[in-house]
Design goal:
The complex is a heterodimer.
Chain A: H1 3-24, E1 54-58, E2 63-67, E3 77-82, E4 87-92, H2 95-101, E5 106-108, E6 116-122, E7 125-132, E8 140-141, E9 144-145, E10 157-161, E11 178-182, E12 186-192, E13 195-202, H3 209-216, E14 221-228, E15 231-232, E16 240-241, E17 244-251, H4 254-262, E18 277-283, H5 287-300, E19 309-311, E20 318-323, E21 330-333, E22 341-348, H6 353-368, H7 373-385, H8 395-404, H9 409-416, H10 427-449, H11 458-484, H12 492-522, H13 526-552, H14 564-614, H15 619-635, H16 637-655, E23 662-664, H17 665-683, E24 687-693, E25 701-703, H18 707-718, E26 726-735, E27 738-745, H19 758-771, E28 775-780, E29 786-791
Parallel strand pairs in A: 18-19, 18-20, 20-22, 24-26
Antiparallel strand pairs in A: 1-2, 2-5, 3-4, 3-6, 6-7, 8-9, 10-11, 12-13, 12-14, 14-17, 15-16, 21-22, 23-25, 26-27, 27-29, 28-29
Helix pairs in contact in A: 4-8, 5-6, 6-7, 10-11, 11-12, 12-13, 13-14, 15-16, 16-17, 18-19
Chain B: E1 3-8, H1 12-22, E2 29-35, H2 38-47, E3 52-56, H3 64-70, E4 76-81, E5 97-100, H4 105-118, H5 124-137, E6 145-150, E7 153-158, E8 162-168, E9 171-176, E10 181-184, H6 188-194, E11 199-203, E12 206-209, E13 213-218, E14 224-228, E15 235-237, H7 243-249
Parallel strand pairs in B: 1-2, 1-3, 3-4, 4-5
Antiparallel strand pairs in B: 6-7, 8-9, 8-12, 9-10, 11-12, 13-14, 14-15
The chains are: A alpha+beta, B alpha/beta.
């Protein structure tokens, strides 16, 4: 296939793409920005029954642990831990004791059989009974199996504990039903995310725990799946339990378990913050607001080892606006990297302090990328109802934060969630490469079709160049997004925005650059140019930026919105232009030298040419004349004498005055006279000549040896072919200030063909080199055949 | 028997000089005639029986070399020239000779010796070689000007001011640097032959002066667009069949 067809197809594709964007723009509404898909990795789970803390089983100590910070303040609370072995009853009434209870880890050693119950009871609040299953038993509720514990032995009988949950939030009614089924002969498998590690058949009711332990080596989490065939309840022959799959997750350490539990199960992309969170406070916060925010930051920061939360004035990534006229929180996208944005949180100062604090706390966790409804929002509720003070990070939260924001936090999280390991971020490089590739193709197309010839106007070319560059930037961004960022789509409105920003910016700034280049050329000093160019370039970049804000975004440009990225790009552009100017200076310096050299060479050449021209008094003529003299000597002594003298005069005129470039008409005509006399001697009676010149032109100066070659031509091509008497007339006159030299002869006419012979060329060269005045040579082939040289 | 001799020179004094030199050898030469231009020479030679010709190569009229080439029976030729033709020294051994003006007696006697030595008929191959060499040395130069007719007067225009030639139906125009348009009676085919090397045929209807090609652009199907430096930036599209020639001419 022809190469050009590919190019055409390529551009057609771009055309289609652009059409798509413009179509998509019709239902685009700036006020209701649809939430970006790649931004929505955290969806809120619908509120479910609250399990009331974390619990797990410690393999090494063979104990259960339980922790919660769900103890309410100033609410009479008692905790009872009931098992066969340990009874732990606590009744609290005072504030401080409850605080102590919060985040305490209770280690509970279960009995041989039965469950551990944790009861939390408070005045006005429903008592909660959390039942921890004995590791010997399964514990499940509803059809969902709870991922809770490592299991080393499958019980002989399934003891099913079902807690029926009424979906209303504040009424939890637990009914417990016990079914006992005999279970034997089942399959169990050990999986790691998606890969199967082992699948075994157990003819008894025992799962080999060593397999799990082996599988855990080098892993944070394995999943044990038990496929239980249909069983029949022994106590009631009518009851059957269908075949079921029980999933039990086993973790290598408690931090992993907490992290895994903290993030929802169907997590597709991890979006934890990777760079410092820079918070700017705007509006009118109360002292309490600031105190709270600072307190939260100081609480969270110690747990973070990869990033920091900071309060800043410039280039924030999160803006918290305390104002009386609250607006919807919004997201402002970066002009050049639409994946970079600044979130603004608007807080109503009329709102209560608590809810404001809750919102701030929630926003902090969301910005960190670890927001979880159950762990953050519930906390807020607790706060609202509870203590009048600062919300402390719960033990869970601190464990999650410190393990997620450690050096290998993300990879651990990815492993736990079965996501592929993160690849190093070469986005900018890839983007740049794509852009360069596109630029290369465009240049190829440009050269192939030779577009320069169609766009002669530099202004159109400049605008076109700006458009092309901006389109390429967008195109490379789109390509990068669609090829390398999986599962994240560009929303049409972002592309439209990019289109608007980039094309305006590209065309404007390149047009400015064009003007600057025109201006800078006029500056003489190299150094000044080197300084002026970057300054003006920076200024024009800023202007283009301003124009985008004013006319495209229709808002005023504030200093604070010029972020680091824009500055970086601007700086890079200025640097490139500085470099180009530097190169340009070098080249122009070289050119200057070259030019001087050329001028010198040309002068030398002119000199040499002139010398050559003067040397061209025909040696042929000399030898021929001498031959004639030799011949005459035998015949006529006086004619011989005359001719020899004439010849010597002619050569004296020629040779002695070679350094003179000009002579008067009078001298020239004298010379022609001598020349013609010699010729007459040679041709005998055949030649007659008449020379005349106006008195006014006699003393005019013309380049030497101009008339003689004309006369020589007349003899060579005219008189020598005349049968009979040849007549030559030379007239020098002046017409309207122009000098006119006419040479008439009665020979055959000038040919229409191209004219050969250096006579004419010689004359032209002399006039051009010496007098540098316009001139023309005409001839007339009519009755009065003549050649006419006019020097203006 | 003396050699029948023709003296061809346009200048009477030169003929006299040769005649007087020949007069020193009355037994050797018998003057059969004198010619003062090419036509006379041809008439004399066509009569036949000419043994020796003293020939001035810068003689006007019909090209003397072609007259010689036309001859079936070639006489012994002695070229006379005002130039000191060093190159002719190479032919000393051949049955040709040359005399440099002004002619002296001593040199002339050598010529007679040579005639005696070689005798007739003359070596045709050698003659042709000499003619070829002389033709090449002809001081005639490449054409420099072209006439541009306007009514009675004809202006002479230097070829290096001609930007390009263009044929339109039967007429051939050429355009000068100052934007003038002139006609010429010559066809493009003739022009292509006669013009110096700086002129390049780029299409069926155009000849371009290389000096004035400012830009070249690739165009479809191997053709090219030439932008000329004539003030109007005239664009000329080269012909597909001339593409190779154009490329070669511009080293492109």
């Amino acid at each position: 296939m022809n190469k050009s067809v590919h190019y055409r197809a390529f551009f057609f594709l771009i055309y289609l793409l652009l059409n798509y964007y413009s179509a998509a723009s019709q239902d685009f509404n700036d006020n209701k920005l649809p939430k970006l898909i790649f931004d929505s990795s955290f969806t809120y789970n619908p509120p479910r029954w609250y399990s009331g803390g974390s619990y797990g089983y410690n393999l090494s100590t063979k104990t259960w642990w339980y922790t919660s910070s769900d103890f309410y303040y100033n609410v009479p609370t008692y905790i009872y831990l009931k098992s066969n072995v340990i009874q732990h009853n606590t009744v609290t009434t005072s504030h401080s004791e409850v605080e102590k209870l919060n985040d305490t880890i209770f280690s509970l050693r279960p009995g041989k059989l039965g469950n551990i119950e944790i009861g939390i009871n408070g005045h006005n609040y429903p008592s909660r009974v959390i039942t921890l299953p004995d590791p010997w038993f399964f514990w499940f509720h509803g059809l969902e199996s709870q991922p809770i514990m490592p299991l080393y032995r499958f019980p002989e009988e399934i003891v099913g504990i079902t807690i029926d949950v009424l979906k209303s939030h504040n009424q939890i009614e637990g009914r417990m039903r016990h079914y006992i089924y005999p279970v034997k002969n089942f399959f169990y498998s050990i999986e790691d995310g998606n890969t199967l590690i082992a699948r075994e058949f157990s003819s008894t009711n025992i799962v080999d725990v060593s397999q799990i332990e082996t599988a855990l080596i080098g892993r944070k989490k394995v999943i044990l799946k038990i496929e239980i065939p249909t069983v029949l309840a022994p106590d009631s022959s009518e009851r059957t339990i269908g075949s079921r799959l029980y999933t039990i997750r086993v973790y290598s350490d408690s931090a992993s378990m907490l992290v895994d539990k903290y993030f929802i199960d169907n997590l597709t992309e991890i979006k934890i913050a990777k760079s410092n969170i820079r918070i700017r406070i705007q509006g009118k916060p109360t002292e309490e607001d600031i105190k709270f925010l600072k307190n939260q930051i100081s609480q969270i920061n110690p747990h973070l080892s990869t990033i920091r939360i900071k309060l800043v004035d410039n280039s924030p990534s999160l803006v918290i606006v305390y104002s009386e006229k609250p607006r919807e929180s919004k997201r402002t996208y970066n002009l050049f990297f639409p994946t970079i944005y600044v979130d603004s949180l608007f807080l109503d100062t009329k709102m209560g302090q608590f809810s404001r604090n809750n919102s701030v706390r929630h926003m902090l966790f969301e910005t960190l990328g670890v927001s979880n409804y159950e762990y953050v929002v519930r906390k807020d509720l607790a706060y609202v109802y509870g203590k009048q003070g600062n919300i402390m990070c719960s033990r869970e939260e601190s464990i999650v934060l410190s393990s997620v924001f450690s050096s290998d936090g993300e990879s651990v999280l990815r492993e736990l969630k079965g996501l592929p390991p993160v690849s190093p971020d070469f986005s900018i490089v890839v983007c740049l490469l794509i852009g360069l590739f596109l630029l290369f193709i465009t240049m190829e197309v440009y050269h192939f079709y030779n577009l320069t010839i169609f766009f002669r106007s530099p202004i159109i070319r400049t605008a076109l160049c700006g458009l092309i560059v901006s389109q390429l930037a967008i195109l490379s961004f789109i390509l990068y997004q669609s090829i390398f960022v999986k599962g994240q789509d560009m929303e049409p409105h972002i592309l439209i925005k990019m289109e608007m920003y980039f094309s305006t910016f590209g065309v404007l700034s390149i047009f400015f650059f064009y003007l600057i280049d025109k201006l800078v050329v006029k500056v003489r000093s190299n150094w000044l140019r080197l300084i002026i160019n970057p300054i003006l370039s920076g200024l024009s970049l800023f202007l283009s930026y301003l124009v985008i804000y004013l006319f495209v975004r229709s808002e005023w440009l504030k200093w604070i919105t010029i972020d680091v990225n824009a500055l970086t790009i601007g700086f890079a552009i200025i640097l490139v232009r500085f470099y180009l100017q530097l190169e340009d200076n070098k080249i122009s310096g070289l050119l200057m030298e070259k030019e001087l050299e050329l001028v010198k060479q040309k002068e030398l050449k002119n000199r040499a040419e002139l010398n050559a021209l003067h040397a061209r008094i025909n040696p042929h003529f000399l030898y021929n004349s001498l031959n004639s003299i030799a011949s005459l000597a035998m015949i006529d002594a006086s004619r011989t004498e005359k001719m020899a003298l004439a010849l010597s005069k002619l050569f004296r005129y020629n040779v002695n005055r070679q350094s003179e470039l000009f002579s008067t008409i009078r001298e020239e005509l004298e010379m022609v006279q001598i020349y013609l006399e010699i010729e007459k001697e040679r041709f005998g009676e055949k030649l007659n000549f008449f020379l005349s010149a106006d008195e006014s032109v006699q003393d005019k100066r013309i380049p030497r040896f101009i008339i003689q070659p004309l006369v020589e031509n007349s003899i060579k091509h005219g008189i020598s072919r005349v049968v009979g008497v040849g007549i030559i007339k030379v007239n020098v006159t002046e017409e309207r200030g122009n000098l006119i030299i006419e040479v008439h002869d009665n020979g055959p006419g000038f040919p229409d063909d191209l004219l050969t012979g250096y006579g004419l060329q010689n004359i032209c060269d002399k006039i051009e080199l010496l007098s540098k005045r316009p001139y023309s040579i005409n001839f007339n082939n009519g009755d009065d055949k003549h050649i006419r040289l006019e020097i203006m | 028997m003396p050699w029948k001799t023709v003296i061809a020179d346009d200048e009477e004094l030169a003929r006299i000089r040769l005649k007087s030199l020949i007069g020193n050898y009355p037994n050797k030469f018998e003057i059969a005639g004198e010619a003062c231009d090419g036509d006379e020479l041809r008439l004399l030679l066509n009569k036949g029986n000419i043994d020796v010709v003293f020939l001035d190569i810068e003689m006007p009229g019909k090209d003397v070399f072609s007259i010689l080439e036309e001859l079936k029976q070639k006489p012994f030729i002695i070229f006379c020239t005002a130039y000191d033709q060093y190159a002719l020294k190479a032919f000393d051994s051949l049955a040709v000779d040359y005399l440099v003006k002004p002619v002296d007696e001593e040199r002339f006697s050598q010529t007679v010796d040579k005639l005696n030595r070689f005798g007739m008929p003359m070596d045709e191959f050698g003659l042709q070689k000499v003619i070829d060499t002389l033709r090449k040395m002809d001081p005639k130069q490449a054409p420099t000007t072209i006439p541009c007719k306007r009514g009675d007067t004809t202006r002479l225009i230097k070829l290096d001011q001609v930007v390009y030639f263009e044929s339109d139906d039967k007429l051939v125009f050429f355009y000068t640097t100052d934007g003038q348009r002139c006609t010429t009676d010559l066809s493009l085919k003739d022009l292509e032959k006669k013009l110096p090397a700086g002129f390049i045929r780029v299409s069926k209807s155009t000849i371009v002066n290389r000096e004035y090609v400012r830009e070249m652009h690739r165009y479809f199907r191997g053709r090219m667009i030439l932008v000329l430096d004539d003030g109007q930036k005239t664009k000329i599209t080269s012909g597909a069949s001339y593409a190779e020639a154009v490329r070669e001419a511009f080293d492109w």
